[in-house]
Design brief:
By secondary structure, the chain is α+β, with helices and mostly antiparallel strands. It is built from three helices and two strands. Helix 1 links the parallel strand 1 and strand 2.
């Protein structure tokens, strides 16, 4: 099975997604999944913020790979 991680957060600090990424990698390994990639939208606290970011296009491209 394939897996992907797409998440958004208001915070844009470098450590924002550290724990989430660690947990995701553990689940992928434990469940023997194929990791297709991640999109971690830092600084995407509102829909307009997300829409203006580079992450919307990245999420779209990742979705096309699935």
């Amino acid at each position: 099975m394939k897996s992907a991680l797409i998440s958004a957060a208001w915070n844009s600090d470098s450590w924002t997604f550290e724990t989430l990424q660690s947990h995701y990698k553990t689940l992928v390994q434990y469940l023997n999944l194929v990791d297709m990639g991640t999109v971690l939208g830092k600084g995407c606290g509102t829909p307009p913020m997300t829409g203006r970011s580079k992450y919307l296009q990245k999420a779209y491209e990742l979705g096309k790979k699935l």
